[in-house]
Amino acid sequence: MRFVIVTGMSGAGKSTALKMLEDMGYFCVDNLPIPLLPRFVEMFSEPDEEVKKIALGIDIRGGQDFGGLKDVLDEMDVKEIEYEILFLDAQDDVLIKRYKETRRQHPLSGSGRVDTGIAKEREKIMFLKMRATYILDTSKMLTRELKLELEKIFVKGQNFCNLYITVMSFGFKYGIPSDSDLVFDVRFLPNPYYIDGLREKTGNDPEVQDYVMGNEKAEQFLDKLKDMTEFLIPNYILEGKNQLVISIGCTGGKHRSVTLANALYKVLEKQENYGVRIEHRDIEKDTITKRK
């Protein structure tokens, strides 16, 4: 039997993850009272039990006694009952935004502020994050990207190191992304903006890519960037980092940065033990500005 406990911060996507696991063939139960957990596990541990894949959602709704959950997990460890913990997390500002958009009240905020409830929740469930088998930070994930990561872990059985990488292109004239971990400046490369026929195109177009990567310095930069990420990523994983944002910038975030970000993404997506996504933050901003 494969038994997965799905937990994490309220608003981080636990309910969505449970629905996805159900579509992947898991028998899913959400918000089971913690005192019933031992009997639940015992019932499905019988050798002739037909259900072989179970996902159980547990969170702080309904005033769950998480001190009791710690005792139950300790008992399961003693009995050598195998289980996995999928912990869904997100940055505080993202969680606050999600609550405001849905107009929902945080389970622990009462009549107070959402950020107070989030702080209380983090404290209560920190022991679960410390015991988690997998940690997914959904701050920047689209629904389809979350599904892809879950399929890697629970369908394809790929190794997973709890790191999700965002490769982001941006324009310096619009500011450096505030959540960047690594920032690279490619304004030293010739700018396609000044080439007839390329100005209106972007780094997603083959003509711009050929122009940018046709420069020897661009290839050298990409090679050095590959070497740096190959060195850094395993060390970030060892340090327990869950989210890594690699930002590549040019003047307007439309040509050179988009081309190099796409090239780095193609390198990183070949790896199977971490997730990676591409984002072009400012690719359309020049067009929008001109319309105004």
UniProtKB/TrEMBL annotation:
<dbReference type="InterPro" id="IPR027417">
    <property type="entry name" value="P-loop_NTPase"/>
</dbReference>
<dbReference type="InterPro" id="IPR053931">
    <property type="entry name" value="RapZ_C"/>
</dbReference>
<keyword id="KW-0067">ATP-binding</keyword>
<dbReference type="InterPro" id="IPR005337">
    <property type="entry name" value="RapZ-like"/>
</dbReference>
<dbReference type="InterPro" id="IPR053930">
    <property type="entry name" value="RapZ-like_N"/>
</dbReference>
<dbReference type="GO" id="GO:0005524">
    <property type="term" value="F:ATP binding"/>
</dbReference>
<keyword id="KW-0342">GTP-binding</keyword>
<feature type="domain" description="RapZ-like N-terminal">
    <location>
        <begin position="1"/>
        <end position="155"/>
    </location>
</feature>
<dbReference type="Pfam" id="PF03668">
    <property type="entry name" value="RapZ-like_N"/>
</dbReference>
<dbReference type="Pfam" id="PF22740">
    <property type="entry name" value="PapZ_C"/>
</dbReference>
<dbReference type="GO" id="GO:0005525">
    <property type="term" value="F:GTP binding"/>
</dbReference>
<feature type="binding site">
    <location>
        <begin position="59"/>
        <end position="62"/>
    </location>
    <ligand>
        <name>GTP</name>
    </ligand>
</feature>
<feature type="domain" description="RapZ C-terminal">
    <location>
        <begin position="164"/>
        <end position="284"/>
    </location>
</feature>
<feature type="binding site">
    <location>
        <begin position="8"/>
        <end position="15"/>
    </location>
    <ligand>
        <name>ATP</name>
    </ligand>
</feature>
<protein>
    <submittedName>
        <fullName>Uncharacterized protein</fullName>
    </submittedName>
</protein>
<keyword id="KW-0547">Nucleotide-binding</keyword>
